[in-house]
Amino acid sequence: MSGLPAHLRDAAWLVNGPVAQILDLLDRDGEEARVVGGAVRNALIGQPVHEIDIATTAQPDEVLRRAQNAGLRAVPTGIDHGTITLLSGDTPFEVTTLREDVETYGRKAKVAFGRDWRRDAERRDFTMNALSVSRDGVVHDYVGGLADLDARHVRFIGDATQRIAEDYLRILRFFRFHAAYGEGEPDPAALHACIAGREGLGALSRERVRTELMKLLVARGAAAAIQAMAESGLLVTILGGVPYLASFTRMIAIEAAAGAAPDAVRRLGALAVFVGEDADRLFERLRLSNAEFDRLRSMADGWRRVSAGLSAPDARALLYRLGPTAFSDRLLLAWSRSQDAADDSRWRTFLELPARWQVPSCPIGAADLMERGIPKGPALGAALREAEAAWIAADFPSDAAVIAAIADRATANRTS
To answer: Closest Cα to residue 148, out of 128, 130, 129?
Structure first.
């Protein structure tokens, strides 16, 4: 028996506010509605509830009719599969008619609408995701999800191989959910099925793989889950290159010791980026955003030149040139690949620099050099770059006389 409660009667979101309004709308007049999936799972174990999905016996056209009569905005976001998004204010709630898969082929499925809560639960991926709760707070469990959630055991519903064949993204989802909610070793049957189905990963869209991987990288058990994926031969398939497991594990430990928030891009860099070509490969393979690629490329380009022996002026110069995010990325990656402890005070001092030092703007501009006789054109640009470099090398002086002397030297070098 599970030690978790079989009710959520104290869940405020269930009895008050927009969720209660939608349940009241759909859970009457011969129809039934419940909250399903992740919201139930998280509420039972005391984790934050974010997206709240609702399932109902009402057919999609009946959901639309009731929503419109109640003055709720309804968007048929996936009406072919029975999903309608209802908006209460600016908050969206996905409402899906009970269904069962008649035929599946990869991500797509031919579904039939029904009224059987058990059949609807059995078509989901993991037992802990198949829980539902009615508006009286009673939790309904048809597949052993309560016991598995209590044991922190991530298990596929029914035959793991079949569940994966329905959607190969479930391989990544298995490891993500194990990292987020699991304890101990991964479920053996699930692990075997993931390994057996690994070739199916190649048919997935790069965007979907990226989304799951980034969520996995910041899960609380990411280190163990990534290690299991590497040992199973799955990680090389996903990344297209050799993973740096020690660097990844150390990055997690350093973030925790330094009080830095888990960051998916930074952890991806620790796991998979050693040189610039690695960033290029990941950009294409995972369809990363330009901003994510720029961060990885910056990490790859300069982490070797950063060490705990960096001087304070050099650290300030690096922060000035990179900005806070890229500075922290490069610093943490170098730290993760050093032999220094995760609580090393020298690295910690550098990491705190963006909070301690306000990056100044260069006080020497084009007008200052033009006043000294340099006309517009290539010479002016060269003089500006020389003046800025000299100001940085002098450790960002603010004294007017020192700044003027730097501008004078830059001018003299272009007019002599």
So the answer is: 128
pLDDT at 56 (0 to 100) = 97
Top CATH class of 1-151 equals alpha beta
| CB burial string 324-359: b at 16+ within 10 A, e below | ebbbbbbbbbbbbbbebebebeebbebbebbeeeee
Q: Which residue has the tokens 């390994």?
A: 195
Residues in the chain where the model's pLDDT stays below 50: none
Place of tokens 């955003």: 289
At 47, is the secondary structure helix, strand, or coil? coil
Choices 1.10.3090.10, 1.10.3720.10, 1.10.940.10, 2.102.10.10: CATH for 153-228: 1.10.3090.10
Are residues 56 and 98 in contact, defined by beta-carbon separation less than 8 angstroms? Answer: yes
Which residues are CB-contacts of 332 (< 8 A; sequence separation ≥ 6)?
Answer: 251, 254, 255, 258, 260, 266, 270, 351
Q: Are 366 and 411 in contact (CB under 8 A)?
A: no
Task: Return the DSSP state at 201.
Answer: G
**Is 91:18 a contact under the CB 8 Å cutoff?**
yes
Distance (Å, rounded) from C-alpha 86 to C-alpha 92? Answer: 6
Read off the tokens for 46.
Answer: 């005391």
Residue 33 near residue 58 (C-beta atoms within 8 A): yes
**Domain boundaries, given as residue ranges, for the chain:** 1-151, 153-228, 267-356, 366-415
Q: What is the CA angle 23-26-30, rounded to 5?
A: 130
β-strands 73-78, 53-56 pairing = unpaired
Q: What is the DSSP letter of 273?
A: -
The phi and psi torsions of 177 (rounded to 5 degrees) equal: -70, -35
pLDDT confidence of residue 414: 76
Give pLDDT, residue 102: 60
Task: Specify the pLDDT at position 10.
Answer: 77
Task: Report the alpha-carbon angle 279-284-289, nearest 5.
Answer: 80
Tokens of 125: 């991926």
| Lookup result for tokens 């005391």 | 46
Scan for tokens 């009673």, then name that residue: 138
- What distance in Å separates the CA atoms of residue 171 and residue 250, rounded to the nearest whole number? 25
**pLDDT of 158:** 96
CB 170 within 8 A of CB 163: yes
- The pLDDT assigned to 9 comes to 77
First to last CA, the chain: 88
Q: How far apart are CA 120 and CA 27, in angstroms?
A: 17
